[in-house]
Write a structure and sequence with these properties.
- The protein is mainly α and 141 residues long.
- It has one domain.
- The chain is 59% helix and 0% strand.
- The chain contains five helices and no strands.
- Helix 2 packs across helix 5 and helix 3 crosses helix 4.
- It is globular.
């Protein structure tokens, strides 16, 4: 799907790769950035487009191509947009794969009540690895 790749490429141009902090955005993502995933697509297709966004973010992060804060900011803004879409459009189902990816990055934002000194390593990385492994290790039919 070209729309997701195009979106990530455009967002990548607005981000200065910095793996240590969240201050890399020159022009942070906005909900309007995600409208390209819906252009000329029926409502029923929107779910798979956002799942594709989640899959590409997970795979790119897992491969070391995207920084945590790049992915985290994108999924947070996209999640807000998805919630607005679900309220406004019947037939738009919440994208399950995207939700898993969103949760994995969300879990890296906080210390889980003092249980982690590095929640990205302890929570995000294993969750993303599990998602990527599942995506690539689907049984043959």
């Amino acid at each position: 799907m070209g729309n997701v790749a195009d979106l990530l490429s455009a967002l990548g141009c607005r981000y200065e790769q910095d793996f240590s902090e969240e201050a890399g955005w020159q022009n942070p993502p906005r909900q309007e950035d995600f409208e390209s995933l819906m252009l000329n697509e029926p409502v029923a297709k929107w779910t798979s487009n956002f799942d594709e966004l989640g899959a590409q973010l997970a795979c790119g992060y897992h491969a070391g191509n995207y920084a945590f804060w790049f992915c985290d900011w994108i999924v947070n803004v996209a999640e807000g947009f998805i919630i607005d879409l679900r309220i406004a459009h019947d037939g738009f189902a919440h994208p399950e794969l995207f939700q898993e990816v969103y949760q994995a990055f969300d879990d890296g934002e906080w210390d889980h009540g003092g249980k982690s000194n590095d929640p990205i390593v302890d929570y995000t990385n294993p969750a993303i690895a599990k998602i990527v492994n599942r995506l690539y290790l689907k049984p043959a039919r």
